From TrEMBL:
Residues 11-354 form the FAD-binding domain. It holds the Pfam family FAD_binding_3. GO terms for molecular function: FAD binding. It comes from the Eukaryota. SUPFAM superfamilies: FAD/NAD(P)-binding domain. This is FAD-binding domain-containing protein.
Amino acid sequence: MSTTIEKNKDLNILIIGAGPAGLSLARLLQQEKGCKNVIVAERDVDRSIRIGGSSLDLHDDSGLKFIKRANLFEDFKKICRPEGESITIADKNGNVILRKPHLKINSKKPEIDRGDLRNLLIDSLLPDTILWDHHFTSLEELSDGTIIVTFKNGTTIKADLVIGADGANSKIRPYVNEVTLKYSGISLIEFEIENPKQVCPKVYDLVDNGLFYALSDEKGFIVQLKGDGNLIVYLSCKRDENWIKESGFDFKKKDFKEIKEFIKNNVLSDWSEIYTNLLNNAVEPFIPRTLYSIPFDPMIEWKSKSNITLIGDSAHTIVPYAGRGINEGMADSCDLIDCLFEVDNDEKEFNLHKRLNKYESLMHKRILEAGNDSNDAKEIVHNKNACNLLVDRFLGSYKYLKSLIPFYTYFINSITDSFGYSK
Ligand SMILES: Cc1cc2nc3c(=O)[nH]c(=O)nc-3n(C[C@H](O)[C@H](O)[C@H](O)COP(=O)(O)OP(=O)(O)OC[C@H]3O[C@@H](n4cnc5c(N)ncnc54)[C@H](O)[C@@H]3O)c2cc1C
């Protein structure tokens, strides 16, 4: 069977996309399996491109499991923020429904900023693994199973195995299946706040180093503290797919004051001033995000037909309400590696395609649970009774104690945290 393992090590593996999923896979291939012919082709011109967006928590059964398996835990510990696990839920009038502090004794989901995570993964790869400024445009499959991949800059690369890790709007996906994205019914407006302690002290206090939800009227704010001290704010609302397009504003470029007034009048007309104050202190630009996902009903069950497969958002774009996307991308890397390098005594000759299909089955099973969990969380956040339903979600198995003990006592929160029953 050593021949199988050797054969895998010799494969020319081309990963398209240096996001968390693609970089995680490259790390395991090189560090755990000793593969020397691994290339990650990325459209960004270099690593200095600013990675914005939310802070992330890595989960112990997926993202954190990968970090430990990839021997990156010691470096991760130096830059993660376990205190980012606190959760507060309030309504549109600022009434606090739940405060769930972080307990240092049991950190299950430490937070890390996206840019820090990307740098950690990039630095973990062998020199010259990443080909920057390589924007995938097309590929051609040859009769012997090899694949010729072409990039916008005119270069081509020949590979035995191509892995699409190029995100939600994947250009590799059409070569693998006919799956298309569907609008989730939710549009987000993202912005940041500098010096939050000074400019919005109430919300800063509610964020409590972690995550704050302000929910009412089937919409709400999700606010997080980032490693650089800024708050990142998502205003999440049920709206038509074209709401942002038809607003008449170019959210990214101009009309900053007018956009603030538009949001106040159209979304937050009777919300407490602690929330309109968030908008008043937003720093440019507003980033609109129309959320799309791959429908999970009926269950997706595609199988690759050749030596091309998908990991991360290109395989399974899910809505971000349960914080599972990056975590599942890292779990994909682990599953794919296991399937590629598994010792199979029944396999007479190395069968790459069969191994890819095995990975895809494992991934689909896992992602169905993650996708449903994410959809449930999305529905809760946009429900008329959102605050109470979200409290139930976070209290997990202890939610029945709600009627006996006021939620906001730290006692119940401590119990759920200590025993790991909360989400
Ligand atoms: C608002 C929001 C909040 C989120 N919060 C969380 C969270 O808290 N926790 C969590 O786990 N997940 C979260 N997610 C989901 C998470 O961002 C994604 O699941 C994750 O980024 C997917 O990783 P990926 O590597 O598959 O793809 P991506 O992160 O999209 O990376 C794809 C890479 O491929 C490159 N690329 C794209 N096209 C090409 C091409 N043609 N050629 C070459 N390179 C290309 C891109 O430049 C990029 O570097 C959130 C998502 C959103 C929208």
